[in-house]
Write a sequence for this structure.
């Protein structure tokens, strides 16, 4: 009886640990690759975003963006790109909702959003393929502002 209970508990523990290891968060993905050789990373926030507000307002009226962070693996080794693509495939973060999944021949794109008080607080775009990248946009983006931006772009075309 004791052996059976021990085996059942051990199997349950192993299944739980395998499940937890298969979940990759956006922070984990960024942290695993931000110091990779030849990675290009850019972070714009704080004072620079404050100074750019008048220029951004012309094209994205109503959007309140506080920071933009880009991680590009274009110049990295094929091994690094493959590792990024494998981890990005397993991306599953409870803080974010999936807005879009797009699969093309050589590229996959995922767009995630973190909502708070009926506004998008963070938007994350992950591309996989030959030119993998991760883009994080933080701020306060209301759905009406996105709709206005889409409508204004359609009217200009």
């Amino acid at each position: 009886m004791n052996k059976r209970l021990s085996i059942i508990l051990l199997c349950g523990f192993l299944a739980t640990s395998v499940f937890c290891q298969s979940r990759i968060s956006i922070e984990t993905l960024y942290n695993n690759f931000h110091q990779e050789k030849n990675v290009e990373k850019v972070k714009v926030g704080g004072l620079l975003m404050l100074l750019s507000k008048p220029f951004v307002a012309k094209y994205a009226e109503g959007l309140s963006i506080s920071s933009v962070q880009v991680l590009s693996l274009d110049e990295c080794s094929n091994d690094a790109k493959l590792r990024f693509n494998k981890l990005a495939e397993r991306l599953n973060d409870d803080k974010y909702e999936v807005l879009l999944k797009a699969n093309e021949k050589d590229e996959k794109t995922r767009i995630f959003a973190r909502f708070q008080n009926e506004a998008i607080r963070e938007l994350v775009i992950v591309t996989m393929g030959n030119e993998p990248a991760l883009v994080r946009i933080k701020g306060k983006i209301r759905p009406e502002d996105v709709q206005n931006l889409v409508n204004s772009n359609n009217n200009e075309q």
Summary: The chain has a mean pLDDT of 81. The chain has one domain: 24-156.
